[in-house]
Design brief:
The protein is of the alpha/beta class. It contains 14 helices and 22 strands. The strands form four sheets. Strands 6-5-4-3-2-1-22 form a seven-stranded mixed beta sheet. A seven-stranded mixed beta sheet has the order 7-8-9-10-11-20-21, covered by helices on one side. The protein is globular, with a radius of gyration of 22 Å. The N and C termini lie close together (about 5 Å). About 0% of the residues have low confidence.
């Protein structure tokens, strides 16, 4: 009997973690951090299965909400293999180490604040894991190529498909395998969508959907909306930059270090080379994004044709005029001494930590500056509060009045919208026995469940956190 348990990303967007068990093996697909403020406590929950009894982990991609709990899994005893594409393995190491450092910094900041305010917090101030745990997790990775069939314990098999979300991202189909299902049996296939990307986007290849699965775990982050025409991203970005410079402010862009920062640089490179915006200093104030830029150079076979052409012509968007890489804390602090307008791209993308908070403190109260969002802001995050029009926000222990202009460019999203999700799902030759709608806020997931049933005739449900289902 095959059992599927929804340990995360059920009725929520982040915290991707799914357990697939047979009588002879147990594996996880993803092991990510919960990033919604209301769910961060779940990162401290005990694993429902002792980590030393988990045989393998299959990783869809290297975003924190998909890989960020791997070091804790290793810390508590996991010693199996973590399967991922080459770019995912390399980027995940960067992400996990960065997460370990940020957790330690956050603990120290909270400790100092509690001492200053003469109070104690509700929990002991310790990080989930440290850099040694992250390095040990990175040492367990094994590279998988798209289209390769990987043999797992208990007769299971896994195959990776291009998801088109970030460099190296994958959807993963798991087959129970002939030996697990019995002699001569075809087995049961379970398809984990991961995060599905978009067609005709810069830098990476389009999604290449799977054509057969008995069960599908289907993400729904943007399952209730359409992104609209994304051919005007450059024009929108140029407009924001020009208007902000006219006011004498800075353009502060909270951006995910993986893919989103690179995509912003891609468009800025085009605008600057064509003299469509003032020639400003562009600060990439994210050590992780800088290291990820280096990773991109290692995996040119994962680029789409346009990006490959730019590289061949020595016009890499990562070498745009005026780009300054702020690698050290000193480099980051020096940005605040720059006079005149500049563009500051900093992590984290949802403003939940990292250097972006310091730039928000310096700019969110300035009427001339613009806070420009280029990615999804999960419910309960600081980014979501700012985007939804909060007049005051609390950042680094300070309550600040929002006076800066707040804008968003929807077209930057690396997530498929409703139409693109249906395009991905429609690639299956026939409907699955059951679809489980995951990675969405509850109302969004429920709405997309209805869309799958109405448009494709699928049988679909929205699982609850911790729910276990038996797969035939």
């Amino acid at each position: 009997m095959t059992r599927l348990t929804f340990l995360g990303a059920a009725r929520s967007v982040t915290g991707s973690r799914f357990q697939l068990s047979t009588d002879s093996s147990t594996l996880l697909v993803d092991c990510g951090l919960n990033q919604e403020r209301s769910m961060q406590e779940r990162n401290w929950d005990r694993f429902p299965v002792p980590p030393d009894r988990i045989d393998e982990v299959l990783l869809t991609h290297a975003h924190l909400d998909h890989c960020g709990l791997l070091p804790r899994l290793v810390k508590e005893g996991f010693r199996g293999t973590i399967y991922a594409t080459g770019p995912t393995a390399e980027i995940a190491r960067i992400v996990m180490l960065d997460s370990a450092r940020l957790q330690l910094e956050d603990v120290e900041q909270k400790r100092r604040r509690h001492e200053r305010e003469n109070r104690a917090g509700p929990h002991e101030l310790v990080p989930l894991y440290d850099e040694k745990d992250a390095e040990r997790a990175a040492g367990l990775f094994r590279e998988v190529r798209f289209g390769e069939t990987v043999s797992l314990k208990g007769g299971l098999e896994a195959e990776y498909f291009e998801a088109g979300h970030i460099l190296g991202s994958a959807s993963i189909r798991v087959r129970t395998g002939r030996s697990a299902a019995g002699k001569g049996a075809a087995g049961t296939t379970v398809l984990f969508s991961g995060d599905i990307g978009r067609w005709n986007r810069p830098i990476i290849n389009d999604p290449k959907p799977c054509d057969q699965a008995d069960y599908v775990l289907m993400e729904s982050t943007y399952g209730d909306r359409l992104h609209g025409d994304d051919t005007h991203i450059a024009e929108q970005l140029a407009s924001v930059v020009t208007r902000t410079v006219a006011r004498g402010g800075n353009i502060v862009i909270p951006s995910f270090a993986i893919e989103r920062s690179q995509e912003v640089l891609y468009y800025l490179n085009s605008l600057l080379r064509e003299n469509r915006v003032p020639h400003l200093l562009v600060f990439l104030d994210s050590p992780m994004a800088t290291r990820v830029n280096d990773v991109f150079a290692h995996w040119p076979t994962y680029f789409d044709a346009d990006m490959a052409r730019l590289i061949a012509e020595q016009r890499s968007p990562f070498d745009l005029p005026g780009l300054v890489l702020a690698r050290s804390p000193g480099d980051s602090k020096a940005i605040n001494r720059i006079t005149g307008s500049s563009i500051i791209i900093a992590g984290a993308g949802m403003c939940t930590g990292g250097r972006i908070k310091h730039h928000l403190v310096r700019n969110i109260g300035r009427p001339g500056s613009t806070i420009l969002f280029v990615g999804y802001q999960a419910e309960g995050t600081l980014g979501r509060q700012i985007l939804e029009g909060a007049t005051q926000v609390r950042i680094l222990g300070e309550t600040l009045t929002v006076k800066a202009s707040v804008e968003k460019i929807e077209g930057f999203s690396g997530h498929a919208d409703r139409g693109e999700l249906l395009r991905w799902a429609g690639a299956l030759a026939r409907p699955p026995r059951q679809a489980f709608v995951i990675h969405g806020e509850p109302a969004t997931a429920e709405k997309f469940r209805g869309t799958l049933e109405e448009k494709l005739g699928w049988k679909a449900s929205v699982p609850s956190p911790g729910q276990t289902v038996e797969l035939g």
